[in-house]
Amino acid sequence: MLKNLWIRRLVTTAALGGILAVAVTAGCLHWVRSTAAGHVYRVDTVPSAPVALVLGAQVHPGGQPSAFLEARLEIARQLYAAGTVKAILVSGDHANWDYDEPGSMMVWLVSHGVPVSRVVLDHAGFDTYDSCARARRIFGVRRAIVVTQSFHIERAVALCRALGVDATGVGDETVRSDRRLWLRGEIREEFAAVKAAADVLSRRDPILLGRHETGVDAATS
Questions:
Q1: Which of 72, 67, 78 minimizes the C-alpha distance to 90?
Q2: CATH of the domain at 32
Q3: What is the mean pLDDT of the segment spanning 128-147?
Q4: Which of 22-36, 72-86, 164-178, 205-219 comes out lowest in average pLDDT?
Q5: How many CA atoms lie within 13 A of 65 on its CB side?
Q6: Three-state SS letters, the chain
Q7: Closest CA to 106 of 94, 90, 124, 129
Q8: What is the pLDDT of residue 15?
Q9: Whole-angstrom Cα distance, residue 139 to residue 198?
Q10: Start and end of every DUF218 domain (predicted)?
Q11: What is the pLDDT of residues 161-202, one digit of tens each?
Q12: What is the pLDDT of residues 52-102, one digit of tens each?
């Protein structure tokens, strides 16, 4: 009898925990989508802004951007070529000297016609929250077009807007053909929305801060 009662209580607790987790996730996803609503565009319709913020992604050995990252960089190149932005802030992981996302992003952009003087590097964009927070607090960005994949763009825009950047966004769809990686990205967003909401509520500092950097000011002048 006691064993059965213990089992019923365990099952009830687990069920309530599951319901709570679903409710929290749904609430965080609603916040992401409602905050980003009306601020996500195509590359040819997005309103102009001083700077494009390109979020980092995997770089292969030798510095070649992954297909996902190259697609983001191509959108940024198009925005610059069309005069929609004056400069491009590339933000990614450079925690180890032999792995340099922003450096590889700069090399790709310059090799595809963007003047080096218009590319600004953020070497401490370790996640989306850090990239948005540092864009505002370190680089002084007040208005930007965020560039990433479409499954990620709502969260990126929502985070930047919550952190003081008047952000719009353009999401890439060209690498959707890699169904496995695309599906993994979509599933990841379900859980990442919870972290995003927690980060905004906590107002945590980025992993690395520092002095104000004038690179964006110079590149947009």
A1: 72
A2: 3.40.50.620
A3: 98
A4: 22-36
A5: 25
A6: CHHHHHHHHHHHHHHHHHHHHHHHHHHHHHHHHHHHCCCEECCCCCCCCCEEEEECCCECCCCCECHHHHHHHHHHHHHHHCCCCCEEEEECECCECCECHHHHHHHHHHHCCCCHHHEEEECECCCHHHHHHHHHHCCCCCEEEEEEEHHHHHHHHHHHHHCCCEEEEEEECHHHHCHHHHHHHHHHHHHHHHHHHHHHHHCCCCCCCCCCCCHHHHHHC
A7: 90
A8: 58
A9: 24
A10: 51-168
A11: 999 999 999 999 998 888 888 888 888 888 899 999 999 999
A12: 999 999 999 989 999 999 999 999 999 999 999 999 999 999 988 889 999
Question: Per the structure, how many domains does the chain have?
Answer: 1
Place of tokens 């310059």: 110
Structure token pair of residue 8? 């019923």
Token pair of 47 as six digits: 């309103």
Residue owning tokens 């919870």: 194
* pLDDT surpasses 80 at 50: yes
Q: How far apart are CA 2 and CA 195, in angstroms?
A: 39
The one-letter code for the residue type at 115 is: P
User: Side chain identity at 20, as an amino acid letter?
Assistant: L
Count of beta carbons in the 10 Å neighbourhood of residue 134:
27
